[in-house]
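Team,

Forwarding the record for the chain on the shared tracking sheet. I've put the sequence and predicted structure together so nobody has to dig through attachments.
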Amino acid sequence: QVQLVESGGGLVQAGGSLKLSCTASGSTFTFITMGWYRQAPGKQRELVATQTSGDSTNYADYVKGRFTISRDNAKNTVYLQMDSLKPEDTAVYYCYARYDTRTYWGQGTQVTVSS
């Protein structure tokens, strides 16, 4: 059974940085796409960034230039380096992985940015 486990969330002041990690266990394959979504209170879950196994990346406009996604396919791990954080980045961040038609989600990690 595939499980995604996130780590690295926490509380940071505006302008600060955090790095999230997500490792997939229980899989025998390389995910086509891995990435991150987030959900703030009272809002829908939204895309943050994704990266394919071929290293093609996709970023939401509101994080471009501030966040960087990377992957280690050998470890089935995806990272999200978050710099220049803003209070509006406060949300639960969810790891996402897709293989063929199957999608998987982590349990989420809280990121709180204070002003």
